[in-house]
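Researcher: Here's the sequence for the chain we discussed earlier.
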Amino acid sequence: MVGRQVIEVTRPFTLQELNDFMEANWNKEEFNAFNIGKPTGMSVGEYILLPATHRFQVIVYPKAAGGLFNKENKVVLTTCDTPAGAQEASFEYMPTGNALTKLWQTSKVLDAEKERKGPAEEVLQIYTAHMKDILARNGLIK
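Model: Thanks. This is the structure I predict for it:
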């Protein structure tokens, strides 16, 4: 389980350029439709959003080369909470003094972690393989 996939590409993309590239090449019937937006209301930036599970989604974003630690242009795919998943998580992590509530919270957190490492990770791997395929077909894989 990785939870984050990085694809090195031959050129930098802006978020809009990556979105346009995906619009032209992404198989929406087999791999779902996407849009640009904030994953949750608390998110700082916008990403390309793809559905994964009830609690998790996959975000896609470009990362241009530059700086000390980023030598390559990249397309990054990673899992993150959906708005519903973030709301559930806020209740699951709320401190409580009740032993039964703590037990329930722990079981919910473990369920979410299984979902993130299981079905959400599987969807991430499928999206990553498709992204690599369409980038390669267009000569953009480094």
